[in-house]
Specification:
By secondary structure, this protein is of the alpha/beta class. It has helices at about 5-15, 20-30, 35-45, 55-70, 85-105, 120-125, 155-165, 180-190, 190-200, 215-220, 225-235, 255-260, 265-270, 285-295, 305-320, and strands spanning about 75-80, 110-115, 135-140, 165-170, 205-210, 210, 240, 245, 275-280, 300-305.
């Protein structure tokens, strides 16, 4: 072995086995930090240093998450390990993994915006306090119940604020009102205006992606009746986020409903440091694709079957294969 290679081995041993950092190695051997970095890269290139991760299942998930991130330009993808297309199981698993992601991602001083959904409800139930300070929890859309089913918005906000010992900012008004004039009047109210301004400054958002059918949260809570459902289908809507209905490209597809909806605009989602969408299941595949196409989120938490379907469909479209 030539001395240059022996030097590569020595530096690799100091770094990987003796836990010295690159500055310490440079000082010890009389080299520059850049030289140490080049030697470590050479150690990997020559196969002197090889890595083995002893967790095949987690490696598979990690690879799929990286593939999702690359395919859809996401900051992060999180795959919950559930491979049964059972709605309740999917929501609980996504909620658990979303909670873990939120716990490690929120920072002191964040404004955490929440849009109610059954999957976000599952996330709220799984959150734990990580010592983060000075949080504000706010609503991204209105929430007053209009049907027999509760939106659970108050519970979600209260639960998250209790976990993080955070301030609360609520929007005590319906998400969808009868006319744009009524919406303007509601937003003109000082309390609503202040809460809405806070919501538009959210740095982190947690929200579900709804589908356009009778199983969706909006339909169950009475915000979407059969007539609205038919109108949305006619306009080729595939999903909703916080009451914003969008098509396969992620574009708002019903301006009349949009003008009556109390929710932060699409631009607010794009300005968040982390806009975290929680959704899974075969019935939501098109809605998730639309949300990703429209850049509504930069983080996706989903189940493994949905993740595999998203990757497969993306690769098929990229290769020009019809679905």
């Amino acid at each position: 072995m030539r001395y240059s290679e022996r030097q590569v081995v020595k530096i690799a041993m100091l770094y990987y086995l003796k836990d010295l950092d690159q500055d310490e190695i440079a000082h010890r051997l009389g080299l520059s930090r850049q030289s140490v970095s080049r030697h470590l890269q050479r150690a990997r290139n020559l196969g002197i240093v090889q890595f083995k991760i002893n967790s095949p299942t987690e490696v598979t998930f990690a690879e799929q998450e990286l593939e999702l991130e690359t395919a859809f330009g996401l900051k992060a993808a999180v795959i919950a390990p559930v491979n049964l297309n059972v709605d309740d199981l999917i929501k609980e698993a996504i909620g658990e993994y979303a909670a873990a992601f939120v716990e490690q991602s929120v920072a002191d001083g964040d404004v955490l915006g929440v849009s109610w959904s059954s999957t976000v409800y599952a996330c709220a139930k799984n959150l734990k306090n990580t010592g983060v300070k000075d949080l504000t929890i706010c609503q991204l859309n209105g929430s007053m119940d209009v049907g027999d089913f509760s939106t659970r918005a108050e519970f979600i906000i209260s639960k998250i604020s209790t976990v993080f010992k955070a301030r609360i900012s609520t929007l005590p008004a319906p998400m969808l009102v009868d006319s744009s004039d009524i919406l303007k009047s509601i937003i003109a109210d000082t309390r609503i205006r202040n809460s809405f301004d806070i919501a538009q400054r959210a740095t982190v958002g947690i929200f579900g992606i709804g589908s356009i059918n009778q199983e969706s949260s909006l339909y169950q809570t009475g915000y979407m009746n059969p007539q609205i459902l038919d109108e949305l289908r006619a306009r080729k809507a595939v999903g909703d986020i916080a009451g914003h209905f969008f098509d396969a490209r992620g574009e708002i597809c019903d301006q009349h409903l949009e003008s009556r909806t109390l929710a932060v605009p699409k631009s607010s989602f794009r300005e968040m440091r982390l806009s975290i969408a929680l959704a899974g299941g075969a019935q939501k595949l098109e809605a998730i694709e639309g949300a990703l196409a429209g850049k509504w989120c930069n983080v996706l938490v989903t189940d493994e079957i949905t993740a595999q379907s998203l990757i497969r469909r993306h690769n098929a479209k990229k290769g020009g294969v019809s679905q």
